[in-house]
Amino acid sequence: MSLASGSRTRRKIPEELTTTEELTTTEELTTTKELTTPEELSAPATGTSSAATEESAAVLPAALSRPRLPRPPALPRILRAALTGATKSAAIVALLLVWELAPRFGLVDRTFLPPFSEVAQAWWELVANGQLADNAQASLVRSFSGFGIAVAVSVPLGLLIGWYRPVADLLNPLLQVFLNTAALALLPVFVLLLGIGETSKISIVVYACAWPILFNTISAVRTVDPTLLRLAKSMDLSAPRLFQKVILPASVPTVFTGIRLAGAVSIVVLVAAEMIGAKAGLGYLINASQYNFAIPQMYAGIVTISVIGVAFNQLLVAVEKRLSSWRVPATS
């Protein structure tokens, strides 16, 4: 019994020692955690750590106290935009001022060139009675119809002729003949063949608009940067992919140059066509005002044509920028 109890006693001693060690370790850890308070952690340590802490503490207030760069005020930008707009419109304002003052000072006969204020009054009267809207609508429908047909036909044909040399060699002599034949010279031919209705007027617009678009498209395809073509061929692009990824994007600026020229031509040719056998349109309004000696109304129609032409050109410029946004500006 005594031996057994002694062995049990000896077995308990390591267990007690283990328990004592565990308690001691736990108490030390607890004491260490209690001693390590936020104040002690934030206090600078000695040696290298103290220097690093002081340096970071000195850098942090400096970074926080560094003044931010002020943003440029909005007022100079507004003034700059206003100055740019005034510069661009200075020539137009000068023209209108000369137009207003020259008849009033007797420099020209105001019977044939009334002041701009009288023309503006006549223009407002035409707007009020609905004549300007009706005639402008008739002209715009004819002009846009002919212009759209010309773009739909001339751009694919120009791409085809510019891409395939045999087609260009076959059609080039015929195209040169039509290019050097003025559209207005063929106006009597269109009237004889198609009558004096809408078909002849739209057809003459299509004919006049087709050639600037066609020849600019051919030139765009043929003048693509050879470096781009060599790089595309080095990547083993197929002919359709080369045409889609290189030829078409590079041709957009030159093609749109032709389209913008055609937009101006469509309005000019249409006005001339509407002066022959038309019963509505801006050309008809100008011609009828001249016959009735309503000179302010005549100039009002001319000003309306100019405004429509400028607005149409700006619309085409916006579309061109949208389609060629990948280009790097020359100023950069």
TrEMBL record:
Residues of the ABC transmembrane type-1 domain: 136-316
Residues covered by region (Disordered): 1-57
Gene3D superfamilies: MetI-like (1.10.3720.10)
Membrane topology, as annotated: Multi-pass membrane protein
A GO biological process held by the record: transmembrane transport
Protein name: ABC transporter permease
Keyword RNA-binding: no
The UniProt record lists the keyword Signal: no
Superkingdom of origin: Bacteria
PANTHER family, per database record: ABC TRANSPORTER PERMEASE PROTEIN MJ0413-RELATED, ALKANE SULFONATE ABC TRANSPORTER-RELATED, MEMBRANE SUBUNIT
Sequence similarity: Belongs to the binding-protein-dependent transport system permease family.
Compositional bias (Low complexity): 16-57
